[in-house]
Design brief:
Elements: H1 3-13, E1 26-29, E2 39-42, H2 47-55, E3 60-63, H3 80-90, E4 94-97, H4 99-103, H5 109-116, E5 120-128, E6 132-140, H6 144-153, E7 167-175, E8 192-204, H7 208-218, E9 226-230, E10 235-251, H8 252-263, E11 269-270, E12 277-287, H9 292-297, E13 302-306, E14 321-324, H10 327-331, H11 334-349, E15 358-360
Parallel strand pairs: 2-3, 2-15, 3-4, 12-13, 13-14
Antiparallel strand pairs: 1-4, 5-10, 6-8, 6-9, 7-8, 10-12, 11-14
Helix pairs in contact: 6-7
């Protein structure tokens, strides 16, 4: 098994195309064709995590946060970032970061947080736009069903809770091939009219490559006419944060105590406790002050996130309770999830070989300490 295999597994879970524009995700250090010994999963890639990888004979670190976030103009060991990258390179250890790609995934960071707090009926708090594309192509009427079926197989025709969706219009197409053409219909040098079906299908943008491959493979024409456009629809299954509900409403003090116990938080900073009971909850792992208004508009009782500043608490305006549960604490279960996911993928990939083990990092990388 090589690093590229693991990258493919991770892209199935959290396509990098859905990472935020400001982020730095993917393979940050290393060669994708390197054979894997073992894999270490961590929230961060510090020197201590590199040391742990060396000790456990892991030559790939799957990190939630990217160690290289801003551009590096030099590598001389003057910062913890440079020292970590240098040590990884010296010991031939690759680093892959997944960060906001997993934040935006339907089964990612916020789904994990919802599950840990027993929240049901989940939906996206900040749905992502520009993730749904539309393909339009023109196929001879007799071959339209076959091409449409192959597009569906590659993932086209899915939107929201519906699959195999398409719009089809029959019309008359015309073309005339030159002397170098090899037309399937008609003859070169002659104007030809063909009854065609215009097939229109939507798809998630990360599926564009396999969908076009299926189109080109199964479309009968020598030259395939098609167009792709981006739709303005929000994606109800891709985005930041989640909304969920408790099975039964709970007194707010009891709920906050449950959050403290579940996430092992010594203290929770919160706004005015304007709610006596909690039923509807919004969560956003990591820094989430930007989504306070989304939580208010969603009419939740409480919004759990991290890295809130003094004036952020005023933004609650006694409409909801907002609570800072800690950056590390809100994302801590992510590495357990990734270990389980990759372990199953690798077992299915090479059940007889079992050549690589996926290990969870035991290094606590939380830079925030409580007195």
């Amino acid at each position: 098994m090589i690093i590229q295999d693991v990258m493919d597994f991770l892209e199935e879970l959290a396509p990098l195309k859905y990472a935020e524009d400001f982020d730095n995700v993917g393979l940050l250090v290393g060669n994708r064709n390197t054979k894997i010994t073992n894999i270490l999963v961590s929230l961060d890639t510090l020197e201590t995590v590199i040391d742990e990888a060396i000790e456990k004979n892991c030559n790939l670190i799957v990190s939630f946060h990217p160690i290289v976030f801003k551009g590096l103009k030099k590598l001389n060991g003057n910062s913890y970032v440079e020292r970590s990258v240098i040590k990884a390179i010296q010991h031939n250890i690759a680093i892959y970061a997944i960060h906001t790609a997993l934040d935006n995934a339907w089964t990612g960071v916020n789904a994990i947080l919802c599950k840990s707090l027993n929240l049901e009926k989940q939906s996206i708090l900040v749905p992502k736009s520009d993730t749904i594309h539309k393909l339009v192509t023109f196929v001879p009427k007799k071959e339209a069903e076959k091409v449409r079926t192959e597009l569906f197989k590659a993932g086209a025709g899915s939107i929201g809770n519906y699959n195999n969706c398409s719009f089809n219009v029959t019309g008359l197409g015309s073309f005339e091939g030159n002397e170098d053409s090899n037309p399937v219909k008609g003859k070169k040098g002659r104007l030809h009219y063909e009854e065609e079906t215009m097939i229109s299908v939507t798809f998630q943008k990360h599926l564009e490559k396999p969908i076009l491959e299926n189109l080109f493979e199964h479309h009968p024409y020598e030259e395939v006419a098609y167009e792709i456009t981006t739709l303005n629809n929000y994606n109800q299954h891709i985005g930041l944060g989640m909304i969920g509900e408790l099975a039964a409403e709970m007194p707010i003090a009891q709920f906050l105590e449950t959050v403290k116990t579940t996430l092992k938080i010594p203290i929770i900073k919160h706004s005015e406790l304007c709610k006596t009971h909690i039923k509807r909850v919004a969560v956003l792992g990591g820094s989430g002050s930007f989504a306070i208004n989304n939580a208010i508009n969603a009419k939740v009782d409480i919004y759990l996130t991290a890295d809130l500043k003094y004036h952020d608490f005023f933004s609650a305006e006694n409409k909801i309770v907002i609570a800072d549960i800690g950056h590390y604490e809100s994302e801590q279960f992510t590495k357990n999830y990734l270990v389980d996911y990759l372990s199953k993928k690798i077992t299915n990939f090479a059940p007889a070989l079992q050549e690589s083990k996926v290990m969870i990092s035991t290094t606590n990388t939380n830079p925030v300490k409580y007195f």
